[in-house]
Amino acid sequence: MQPVVEAKQVNKVYGGKGNVYTALDQIDLTVQEGEFVGIMGPSGSGKSTLLNMLATIDQPTSGDIVIAGTSILKMNEEQLSIFRRDRLGFIFQDFNLLDTLTVRENILLPLALAKMNIHELERRVDEIADKFGIRQILDKYPTHISGGQKQRTAASRAIVSKPSLILADEPTGALDSKSATDLLESLRDLNEQDKSTILMVTHDAFAASYCKRVLFIKDGRMFTELVKGHANRKEFFNKVLDVLSVLGGGISDVI
Ligand SMILES: Nc1ncnc2c1ncn2[C@@H]1O[C@H](COP(=O)(O)OP(=O)(O)OP(=O)(O)O)[C@@H](O)[C@H]1O
């Protein structure tokens, strides 16, 4: 089976001329189809830098990123933007919803760009709205819905085009615990029922406990990984906490 995404010996160096900072140091990572992988680590350890590279928003200083068999280094800007549109779904903490469009229109946006048939578009939006429990707010504007509903709208938009990979950066960061749990359960269902592949950066051990595997980064290097296996969510949560306690260095930032 071909991996959905691979990072190969990825380095990222910021700055220059005596002021060099290595944000990522020889990172290797493989995510297979159908995985739900978390990335954790102290503040400044390189999580967002790695996610931005996997999202093709940023490029490694050396090493390679291969998504669905294609090296992103071999693509030009136009190919990359088509690739992002067709293959990737993004869920970021700040939602990025357009206030002048309704919830339905926000969700439709990536599909409209892909020029799909209108009936197919509407069917897809209704199906996803049911999945995320936001059908009753489809005709409202973002300014008239709650933070949790905004986040679920953003998540719906991220998956509407059936991307091969969903990338989430602190998706529960701005949510209260009920909304966070709803979103995490939706992501888990998406992974288990629809076999979506999900990669999620999080500070939150509770959020990480929904993943099947969690990678821990420290000082730009891969520190260790935990596999959920047959553990239940509570047991896995405790294992995540154990690793965080030995990870040290800014641990208070992590939990
Ligand atoms: N554009 C940049 N220029 C210089 N240094 C940067 C840049 N972006 C990030 N860094 C540095 O790289 C390191 C990794 O940053 P990154 O945002 O990936 O960390 P993080 O693990 O996501 O942190 P947090 O959990 O606080 O969001 C940090 O020390 C940061 O200051």
UniProtKB/TrEMBL annotation:
Domain ABC transporter: 5-244
UniProt KW keywords: ATP-binding, Nucleotide-binding, Transport
One Pfam family from the record: ABC_tran
MF annotations from Gene Ontology: ATP binding
Organism domain of life: Bacteria
The keyword Protein biosynthesis is annotated on this UniProt entry: no
Alphabetized CDD domains for the sequence: ABC_MJ0796_LolCDE_FtsE
Entry similarity comment: Belongs to the ABC transporter superfamily.
Name used for this protein in its record: ABC transporter ATP-binding protein
